[in-house]
């Protein structure tokens, strides 16, 4: 019986890629096709495969740049995990499991998970919000709030675009929560079916961490929805510290933390710099979209000289937008981690 259980557990972990040379140099060093002059963007093979699939699908320029930044963050985290693993850290596989969840979030977010996706991949949040379908947020509560906000007359065109970004940000959080919840459910089922009671006790702390993560994400989602509800009914607060949704959310988290007044003021100043970075990134996204539209226009005219010039400009803008996106998301990741550590220390006191 013990041999049978061991075989099942071994098979489970083999399927998840925990055992084996998943992160070995031979597996993950991308190989260049001799007949392909394209540069290799990532040091991990599976990330290059996702990127190549996105290029084949011809995602909208801003979506493509966002995906590239997300994959760069994933690459950084996976390479860091590889070093930790070599040092004997993460024996329970929790950090690797989180990396898998993050990777699945990326695939789902950009419609690259192999599932039938009814979303319009060419849509872009920078385009006119009035052209969007009423069910774009895939949540009746959000759709209703958005409809009220559009017809309330309380928002200028720019404010509606900012609000639209807040709604999209909330939708992404809900999507990520659903992916994590599905992963936790599958993990629980496997543990219950193939692991003996004694082994289950060893893994209980892993499930506890997963449930804590889910609880925190759900709390964050509920707070975010309440914020959207207030803005939709009453308009933006002219006295609010920050306009960008991600920055405002970090500030709300910081105010709930256990910071001293001086630490909170210092964090606020850092958030101001971060918001400037976010706004600059947004500007480059807008310029990238305009450059892409101009390039398509020139291509339609068949003007080769202008086509080459515009192609060069578009390529440089795309590279700059990806670079800025990566730096912004890494900064966001660092700020979020700092707040999480502060909350953990506060809870332990």
From TrEMBL:
Keywords, alphabetical: Coiled coil, Receptor, Signal
InterPro entries, alphabetized: A2-macroglobuin_RAP, Alpha_2_MRAP_C, MG_RAP_rcpt_1, RAP_D2, RAP_D3, RAP_sf
Single GO biological process annotation from the record: negative regulation of receptor internalization
CDD domains noted in UniProt: RAP_D1 (cd14806), RAP_D2 (cd14807), RAP_D3 (cd14808)
Coiled coil segments of this chain: 153-180
Top-level lineage group: Eukaryota
Signal sequence range: 1-20
Gene Ontology molecular-function annotations: heparin binding; lipase binding; low-density lipoprotein particle receptor binding; receptor antagonist activity; very-low-density lipoprotein particle receptor binding
Domain Alpha-2-macroglobulin RAP C-terminal, chain residue ranges per copy: 136-349
SUPFAM superfamilies recorded: RAP domain-like
Pfam families hit by this protein: Alpha-2-MRAP_C, Alpha-2-MRAP_N
A GO CC annotation given for this chain: rough endoplasmic reticulum lumen
Residues annotated as domain Alpha-2-macroglobulin receptor-associated protein: 13-118
Protein name according to UniProt: Alpha-2-macroglobulin receptor-associated protein
Organism: Acipenser ruthenus
